[in-house]
């Protein structure tokens, strides 16, 4: 069975997240987006875990669903064309900050677990290291290798995936605090790391340039901090919608059909730069300036493109044999807003968004599959914009140093 999953999100217990990140809201937005399996996020936080145990029941396939008795009457309605089952998979993100090989390392790790008992066992171990109550994404003085060992003790079927693997400050390969290889980070346990998350600022094509990642599964997730951001990146599976199916696809690549990506230039750490001065640099310019801002002399944030190129051993355009495909998309609400010349939060844009979902189906269907003539019946300029997006005819002002890039659709000739 082919389905879409978004396994890296957050709850309202994480710092700087929306209050709408509850199970009802995630259940609703999963259907609006076209997502079959959603990570719970923040499973290490005791209060969120209590909610998960209270509000979810096993689905019989290693995943979970909202209780039958769960009162969804007060939840905003899901259009009939979007109605679909939604399952949840226990997941969380852990920030490991520690010293290794003479440097401070800051590595964010996504963990996936097969059941809530395993989550409890992991949390017992993590609570001995530091606080797991102050943030849904706990910050722990813990070697990522030791986290992996604890995770496998909690369940040999658990998965650790280095999150947004190339971002500068908090990732396994980050320019400021990361490693050059998975083996350097995880040592003898590296064979238990089957996948990395590409992150918003890179895509599979960029990662294909690194031969050391051959055999490593590339996954994508939203890292959503609000429910409406669900699915801004996601992974496509072609397997049973079960924990075992997902585990097998991630660990072996069998059943992983591809990913849905941001255009990587839109990510907020794609290019080099210094946000305070409004300076964006190409890697060659950064090197020429001695990694200093040409405006103020301050340190430049080395972006994902630069960092990846520094370890790449293949030219751009390389594609390993058997690598799953990917597609790059612009969120539907952003395309609508651009064609209407309004903000994405405007009532006009929101109205058209929900009208389209009600008439055509979920967002991924509209973006990737719906016939353009059907979209044009509601909004001709939008249909033209989606057609150009599907062909990759976009113009992007790249993001840098924590500032998102902007994407626009190429005007009609």
Automatic annotation (TrEMBL):
It comes from the Bacteria. Signal peptide: none annotated. Pfam families: PHP_C (PF13263). Keywords: ATP-binding, Helicase, Hydrolase, Nucleotide-binding. GO terms for molecular function: helicase activity. This is DNA helicase UvrD. It comes from Geomonas terrae.
